[in-house]
C-alpha cells in the first residue's frame, strides 16, 4: 500500500517493485528517458521521507553483443553502468547470457556438498539425505529455471546435470535426477499457475477468445494468442516457449 502510488511516467516503461527494491525498465522506443524516470523515483522517495541509495543503484543496458558504443544511451549521472547485475537472485548480463549465473549456482552447489558429506558421515539415511539435497541443492538449481532455461547452452545444461550425477554417485540421492525433466515440470507448473488472472505473469499473455458461432476445433492447451516471433533468439524466452509448446 505504501508504494502503490509509485508509477512510471511513460506507459511504455515498467517499474517493478519488490519489498524495498525497485527496478526501472525503459525500452528504446519510450518517449520518456531513463533519466526522467529516475528523477521521478528520487522525487517520490524524497516526498515520502526516504532516500534512494545511489551507491547500490546500477544501470544495465541490454544490447546486441557487437553494437557500436555510439548507439548506446548516454551514461546516467551518479549511477554506475555495469555489464552484469544481480536481480532477485539471478545474475543478468547485458547480452542475456546466463554464464555468470550458472557459474554462481554451480559454485554454491559444490560448496553445499560438504554439508551433505558431513551428514552422511554422521549416519543420516539415504531418504533423509535425498530430502536435504532437494532442499539446499536441487532448489538452488530450480530457482527461476523456467524463466531462463531457454537461454542456456548445451554446456550450461551439462554443468548442471553433472551436479545431479555427482550427488547420485556419492550416495546423496535415491536416483539421478534429470535436468531436462525437472525443467519441463517446472515450466509447466509456472505456466499453469500463470494462466490464473490474479497471477503476476498473466498480463504477459494476450487472450484469444473464440468468436460466437465458431466451429468446435480440437482442444488446445490454452486460449492465448500466439506471439509473432521475428528473431530466432526471441523464441527462447518463457512466454514464447510455453505458448508454442502447449498449443
Amino acid at each position: 500500500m505504501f508504494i502503490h502510488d509509485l508509477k512510471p511516467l511513460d506507459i511504455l516503461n515498467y517499474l517493478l517493485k519488490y519489498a524495498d527494491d525497485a527496478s526501472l525498465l525503459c525500452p528504446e522506443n519510450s518517449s520518456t528517458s531513463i533519466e526522467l524516470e529516475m528523477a521521478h523515483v528520487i522525487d517520490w522517495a524524497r516526498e515520502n521521507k526516504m532516500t534512494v541509495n545511489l551507491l547500490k543503484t546500477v544501470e544495465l543496458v541490454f544490447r546486441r553483443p557487437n553494437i557500436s558504443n555510439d548507439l548506446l544511451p548516454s551514461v546516467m549521472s551518479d549511477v554506475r553502468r555495469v555489464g552484469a547485475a544481480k536481480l532477485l537472485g539471478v545474475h543478468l548480463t547485458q547480452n542475456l547470457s546466463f554464464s555468470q549465473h550458472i557459474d554462481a549456482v554451480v559454485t554454491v552447489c559444490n560448496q553445499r556438498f560438504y554439508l551433505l558429506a558431513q551428514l552422511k558421515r554422521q549416519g543420516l539415511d539415504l531418504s533423509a539425505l535425498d530430502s536435504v539435497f532437494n532442499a539446499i541443492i536441487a532448489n538452488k538449481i530450480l530457482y527461476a529455471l523456467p524463466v531462463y532455461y531457454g537461454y542456456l547452452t548445451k554446456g550450461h545444461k551439462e554443468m548442471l546435470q553433472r551436479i545431479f550425477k555427482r550427488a547420485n554417485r556419492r550416495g546423496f540421492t535415491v536416483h539421478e535426477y534429470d535436468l531436462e525433466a525437472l525443467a519441463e515440470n517446472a515450466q509447466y507448473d509456472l505456466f499453469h499457475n500463470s494462466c490464473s488472472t490474479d497471477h503476476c505473469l498473466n498480463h504477459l499473455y494476450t487472450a484469444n477468445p473464440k468468436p460466437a458461432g465458431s466451429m468446435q476445433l480440437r482442444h488446445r492447451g490454452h486460449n492465448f494468442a500466439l506471439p509473432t516471433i521475428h528473431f530466432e533468439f526471441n523464441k527462447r524466452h518463457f512466454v514464447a516457449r510455453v505458448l508454442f509448446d502447449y498449443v
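The mean pLDDT is 90. The chain is about 40% helix and 10% strand.
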